[in-house]
Amino acid sequence: MKVIRYTMLLLLLAMTTGLRAQDSTEAEPKKKISYHFHFYSAPPKPGKGYVTTGGNGALLSFANMKNNGEHVRNIPRFTLFFNIGQNYNYDFSRSFGVFSGVNIKNIGLISKPNDSVKLKQRVYTLGVPLGFKVGDLRNGFFFFAGGEYDLAFNYKEKYFLRGDKKSKFNEWFSDRTDLLMPSVFAGVRFNPGFGVKVQYYLNDFFNKDYTETVNGVKEQPYKDMKANMLFVTLSYNFGGFKCDFGNHHRRDNKDRKGTRVIIEKRTVTDK
Fold it and tell me: What does the pLDDT look like over 138-181, one tens digit per residue?
């Protein structure tokens, strides 16, 4: 009986070893799938209008401030939120075009009238630019310039004393600033959709005719104030995003509208 039992165990062990060897020889190579991104931003053919999504990105504001002829100390103001917009473009040729649109911007000043007081004053504006662009519009490297009218629709102010915030308030369509704020701008745009823009406001940030009543006395806090503002921004301007899976090399890239992200699917076999 023991001989039979040992014989069966040996046969079972041999069969198991054989099956494992067969599985190892018949196993298929492993496959890995990867995705590769290709970024395009060519506009359509000249003579056609198209819409691009973009606006001002990171925004750094500067101001030349004076009160009754004396310089008022101020520091640059940096903001990321909330700057967006859409532009309508029309290219007459591959090297010249015009654009307009609607943009929302967060612009403002930070001033220090003395060592103890700091004021943060900003407005949200709705701007309508009108500009032109010259350069290689197909490949995305060009110069642009123009003018813009902003409608100031929300004013906010924060008051700090010795580093501590003491008060803040905001007003819709406040009289503290001019309702309309004209400006001029110029910049350079690089492929694939980012650029640098400088924008200068032609009127004062504050409304000199603004009047408020403090303790029963009417005052004009900005009567002698002069504040001309300029900002530098990392601008962006993208077309509508569209994702295509695979076969990107078969598509005609000459007349691709706006910006497109091509996602290429690749399969790699491990030997």
Answer: 888 899 999 999 999 999 999 999 889 999 999 999 999 999 99
Token representation of residue 80? 């990321």
The pLDDT tens digits of the residues spanning 230-247 come to 999 988 777 644 444 444
Rounded distance between C-alpha atoms, residue 54 and residue 14, angstroms: 70
Question: Please, what is the Cα angle at 79 between 195 and 58, to 5 degrees?
Answer: 15
Name the maximum alpha-carbon separation found in the chain: 119
pTM of the model: 0.72
CA distance 112 to 110: 7
Cβ contacts of 38 within 8 Å, gap of 6 or more: 248, 261, 262, 263, 264
CA 139, distance to chain mean position in Å, is: 20
**In whole angstroms, how far apart are CA 56 and each of 69, 96, 157, 180, 222?**
32, 22, 22, 19, 28
Contacts of 220 (CB under 8 A, 6+ apart): 208, 209, 210, 211
Start-to-end C-alpha separation, the chain: 48
What's the burial of 94, exposed, middle or buried (CB within 10 Å: 0-12/13-18/19+)? middle
Residue 7: how many CA atoms within 13 Å on its side-chain side? 4
Tokens at 245, concatenated: 């899976």
